[in-house]
Amino acid sequence: MNDTPTNKSNKPFGERYFYLVATVLLLGMTVMGFQLFFFHGKAYPDRPLTPPIKTLIILHGTAMSLWMLLAIIQPFLIASGNRRAHMALGKVMTVIAVCLVLLGLKLGVAACKVAPPDFMFGPLTPKQFLSVPVGDIIMFALFVAAGVLYRKRADIHKPMMFLASLAAVDAALARIDLLNQLYRGTVWQKLFGDFFFALVITGVFLLAKCIVFRKFDRWFAAGFGVMMVWFWMVTQCATTPIWDDLASFLLR
To answer: How far apart are CA 141 and CA 65, in angstroms?
Structure first.
């Protein structure tokens, strides 16, 4: 993605490499959440990949891995002053983002179709749980769209693309039992469901960025606010007749 010209030598080390370090941490969380997939070829929680959707899972996992790896390279290119390569790679990431959206929607619907009728995703039926991947995908797509639209505004572009990665990593965070045990059964699960820890991580990164840059990032904060409201709405709508009708339409 594009970026406005800056003189990297005038920027403190922390500011130049904040997004690089933050995205490396996101990649670490992705590997931790999907360790069964990456290292054992299994689905969470320690189940074989469902044969009818195995290819879709692998394709989506590959596209997600590519996105995260390129999301690390992009801030490094900017920090090193290589904007031309950053812009060229940005076009590749846009294509990958489109693939992630299409594959994510198809996988979410397919997974719901092959789930046994009495199977439960925590407190949600398969049809209700479909709201989770759909909510994630929409949030990811909106942040990518904002990042592309404002690619010449670094103050908007950078946080939007990072927030897109955060939205994409939400599925991995929901599979880290050690983290999820901290809020399961609490009011936070009722308010934000499986999205809760993604919001916690986003808030931590926002605070860290304000400390490193020594100023409040209003665009990052605005994106965080949109994410919080959106994930709350998705969680609350998952068990309503409105979502049931919409899910039935998607599952036709």
So the answer is: 17
Residue 228 lies in a domain: yes
Enclosing domain of residue 117: 8-250
On whether residue 36 sits in a domain, the answer given is: yes
Amino acid symbol at 115: A
How many residues does this entry show for the chain?
A: 252
The contacts of residue 192 (CB under 8 Å, 6+ apart) are 199, 228, 231, 232, 235
Number of domain units in the chain: 1
Q: What is the pLDDT of residues 74-101, one digit of tens each?
A: 999 988 889 899 999 999 999 999 999 9
pTM score: 0.89
Question: Could you tell me if residue 2 is inside a domain?
Answer: no
